[in-house]
């Protein structure tokens, strides 16, 4: 297992280096800071984009409390405790970093918006490795992944190149749902990972359509404000999962579960069709017999 982990990390590093060589740099567009909703209420610039970050603070604090209050989440591995702690700290910190950025959007403040999000992304990836691949590998990877995420922010800030940051942000969004479907889980209720992924995807769509949504809602709320609310639902689903889950006695992937369910549906349909066909034949024979008797 340790050899496989070394090979996997080696392959990932090689792929990253090749990608950095063959692809052009991606500078930060200054249009990114031009949000649709610039309204000010109670002296707060860009009010809704600022205050819509408040749910991150609530969810992050609740997650942290439940991690340690009587071990409510029943975390059995030290790596899980560390990973989820860092994740919920990152979620709570998003409220401050993102609010600070939206008060006066620019590149310098954007660092503090992206930094806590990156910490949350990388720590949750380590947690997933613990649950789905190997506990020791996942635990050891927590610090390197978080440090690597922080480095991508610094690299973007000093070299104006978003490629490493884009990988850190989007690779977990692809890898986690795929692994959640294909790899057998350690715990029950793993479908909540997919609900979290769906809401994160919805948040990214709302972010991209910021101005369009602002027009559709007749300037009531912008896509970016809704993005904050949807993104805050991601840790909510993970908290629900942590609260409800138990050790999975039969480690069976979601793909396998869905396949078995689909086969049962097909079998039921086949039996129903056979029964309906048999009933139809009997009815036809009865009708023919009655015709001959008449």
- Spans of at least 5 consecutive residues whose pLDDT stays below 50 are none
* Strand-residue proportion: under 5%
Mean pLDDT: 87
Helix content: over 70%
User: What is the makeup of the main sheet?
Assistant: none
The topology string of helices and strands comes to: HHHHHHHHHHH
Q: Tell me, what's the shape? A: globular
What is the terminal-to-terminal distance?
80 Å
By secondary-structure content and strand pairing, the structural class works out as mainly alpha
Number of strands: 0
So how many helices? 11
Q: What would you report as the Rg, rounded to the nearest angstrom?
A: 25 Å
What does this structure look like?
- With 294 residues, this protein is mainly alpha-helical.
- The protein is 76% helix and 0% strand.
- The chain contains eleven helices and no strands.
- Helix 4 packs antiparallel against helix 5 (107-132) and helix 8 runs antiparallel to helix 10.
- It is globular.
- The N and C termini lie far apart (80 Å).
- The mean pLDDT is 87.
């Amino acid at each position: 297992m340790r050899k496989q982990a070394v090979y996997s990390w080696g392959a990932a590093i090689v792929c990253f280096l090749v990608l950095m060589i063959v692809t052009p740099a991606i500078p930060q567009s200054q249009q990114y800071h031009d949000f649709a909703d610039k309204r000010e209420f109670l002296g707060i610039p860009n009010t809704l984009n600022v205050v819509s970050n408040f749910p991150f603070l609530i969810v992050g604090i609740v997650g942290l409390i439940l991690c340690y209050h009587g071990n409510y989440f029943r975390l059995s591995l030290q790596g899980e405790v560390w990973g989820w702690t860092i994740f919920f700290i990152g979620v709570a910190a998003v409220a401050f970093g993102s609010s600070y950025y939206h008060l006066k959007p620019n590149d310098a403040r954007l660092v503090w918006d992206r930094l806590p999000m990156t910490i949350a992304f990388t720590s949750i990836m380590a947690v997933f490795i613990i649950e789905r691949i190997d506990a020791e590998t996942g635990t050891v990877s927590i610090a390197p992944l978080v440090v690597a995420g922080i480095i991508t922010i610094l690299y973007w800030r000093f070299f104006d190149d978003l490629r490493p940051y884009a990988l850190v942000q989007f690779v977990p969004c692809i890898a986690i749902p795929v692994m959640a479907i294909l790899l057998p889980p350690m715990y029950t209720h793993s479908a909540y990972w997919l609900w979290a992924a769906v809401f994160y995807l919805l948040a990214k769509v709302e972010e991209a359509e910021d101005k369009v949504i602002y027009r559709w809602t007749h300037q009531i709320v912008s896509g970016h404000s809704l993005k904050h609310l949807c993104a805050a639902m991601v840790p909510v689903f993970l908290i629900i999962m942590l609260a409800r889950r138990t050790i999975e006695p039969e480690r069976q992937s979601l793909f396998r579960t869905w396949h078995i369910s689909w086969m049962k549906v097909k079998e039921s349909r086949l039996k129903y069709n056979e029964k309906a066909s048999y009933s139809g034949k009997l009815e036809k024979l009865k009708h023919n017999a009655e015709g001959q008797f008449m």
